[in-house]
Amino acid sequence: MIIRIFNYGLSILLGLSITIAKADSSLSLITSSDTLKSKEDFSDYFQVEVMRGFLAAHTQGMQELYQHTYGVQVHFQRSMLRNRFHPNQFKKPLYYGTTLNYQNLGSSAAGIAVGLGFSLFIPTGETQKTRFTVGMGGGYLSKPYSLENPKNIAIGSHINGMMRLGIQRDIWPINVSNSRSTAQINIGMTHFSNGNWSQPNLGVNMPYLSLSYRYKLEINSQESQFVLVDRNRSTKQWLKIQEHTTKIKDLNASIERGLKKRILGTLITKNGVIYRTWDVIGGLRVGRRQMEIDQEANFTVGIIEILAERQYKYDEFTTNKNLRSYSAHPHVGFTMFLDRTYQYNKPNPLPPYDFAKTTELAAIIGNRYVFGRVGVLTDVGIYLYSPSDSKRRYFQALGLSYMVNSKLILTARLKVHLSAADYIEWGMGYRF
């Protein structure tokens, strides 16, 4: 079920990325009427949530694990800046942050679950009292399958990936906008799985109902001004005006003097206005997979990747402020997988390494949605070459990235073929 939800969400995100990626090269003279003012929220929030649910027995053999669960979640949230490039596409505020959760799974066979990850809170509706929540990260399960604990056939490792989906609704007070303290009712589900890192890997699903308390740590808002770069675009492209670097008259003067360039349809001037370009990113990752419970050794998969990714460049004065903003970075490229599981044929011994029989080559398209330093990865790939037809000809991937600096990017990604997980990848990318 969680994989199906992931696939639907991935399709929506990729559709959004294609819409954002479209560019037009026509530019118009900027006047004082081509401006947009927006009030931006810089406030931070703390939220604590008390949960009650159950461990779902979603496959045969898990009935003994079905028990009521209870736990607590703690969220730290930061409000995001309005999107600098398309402010009219994001009319509601967006919140991101860190979530720590603890759940007692209700039995000695299942133990406890602890998770830590990145979360998004997406308001909806005119009053913004309802928020969709989604989170990804890592988790720890205290009682995985072992010879000493054979009843837990759901998961085979202590360390797992964690995903969380939910929706929350403010129930107190009535006028939320004038209060720093609010209460919510929440419904959602937490999912733990190890991506075939270790067998078994049926996954642990925990639907829950909860009550929460949310407190605004500070009240900090600022009015910003945007300038319209291209009136002819249906989506309209806006650039944020930095008061200390760029004024409307400076933009007009630059255009009149001819000090401009067209880079994929976006204006760049000597005043440091944001522009778009493409960067080359090389990536190296590894994955690990166990094929069967009684398999003594695990297979290590090597991944080599080369991408062309859309980037946004800023002047030196805006770099730190932009860490609280969000943007979409479409990318395309090629990935090579060195996967010896193709040679696995129980009970026969593993044959000598054969490059042609263990190598996959794929073309991929996707997006990296950047929230500060954290990025959410959504990719779809098609195999151009694979050793056999044991897998589908296409795959999907969902993951997280972290920008250590302007060049180095850390990455963790789950690769799946529709409802079948392949493995979790860990590694890094370097922007050239």
Q: How would you describe the overall organization of this protein?
A:
By secondary structure, the protein is mainly β. It has three domains: 36-216, Porin, CATH 2.40.160.20; 223-273, no CATH class; 277-431, Porin (Beta Barrel), CATH 2.40.160. It is 8% helix and 52% strand. The protein contains three helices and 21 strands. An eight-stranded antiparallel barrel has the order 2-3-4-5-6-7-8-9. An eight-stranded antiparallel beta barrel has the order 14-15-16-17-18-19-20-21. The two termini are 39 Å apart. Mean pLDDT is 78; it is low at 10-33, 82-90, 227-274 and 314-323.
The CATH class name of the largest domain reads Mainly Beta
Helical content stands at under 10%
Q: Let me know the largest β-sheet.
A: 8 strands, antiparallel, barrel
Oligomer status: single chain
Number of spatially distinct domains: 3
CATH architecture classification of the largest domain: Beta Barrel
Total strands: 21
Which structural class fits the helix and strand makeup? Answer: mainly beta
